[in-house]
Amino acid sequence: MGSKGREIVGLDVDELLVLLRKAFADEWLAYYQYWLGAKVCKGPMKEAVITELELHATEELNHSLLLSNRIIQLGGTPITNPQDWFKLTNCGYDAPDDPFVKTLLIQNIKGEQCAIGTYKKLLDLTRDKDPVTYNIILTIIEQEVEHEEDLQALLEDFELMARAFK
Ligand code: FE
Ligand code: FE
Ligand code: MG
């Protein structure tokens, strides 16, 4: 922990750490949901969907890295036991039990929308108070917004294709 780095945070650092650890839990669950979704995915347009799910998995994993680095900088500990992912998550986990492309897209869009809401709250909390965390969260939310749009565009293409075959 950097003591001056922690001192300049104009927020209760312990409360901030609670929120960063919750977001960290979300990222691991999002990573696994995407990673497994890409493995089991079936149906029309699956090549395009798998490519996107795989890319998003790596990006979610990188978000967990960014959050863990900041948690440690602030003197906290990233979650040490995966059982706590479920206790701390904001956005939960939707098991890809139905491998149909459309179901996976809908599940992951829901996850992204939750993530965007979570990070918007963190942006509002840290703006003008903790520029270092703010900058990290901004980087992450930019990608979550991109993820939502990527998946909604794929879902739209899927629906158009389904209509063409009616
Ligand atoms: Fe993420
Ligand atoms: Fe995402
Ligand atoms: Mg993408």
Explain what the structure shows.
With 166 residues, the chain is an all-alpha fold. Helix content is 77%, strand content 0%. Helix 2 packs antiparallel against helix 3 and helix 2 packs antiparallel against helix 5. The termini are far apart. The structure holds fe (iii) ion (FE) (2 copies) and magnesium ion (MG). The site of one fe (iii) ion (FE) has 7 residues, from helix 2, helix 3 and helix 6.
Ordered list of secondary-structure elements with their pairings:
Blueprint: H1 3-7, H2 13-40, H3 46-73, H4 83-88, H5 101-126, H6 131-164
Helix pairs in contact: 2-3, 2-5, 3-6, 5-6
The structure holds fe (iii) ion (FE) (2 copies) and magnesium ion.
The site of one fe (iii) ion has 7 residues, from helix 2, helix 3 and helix 6.
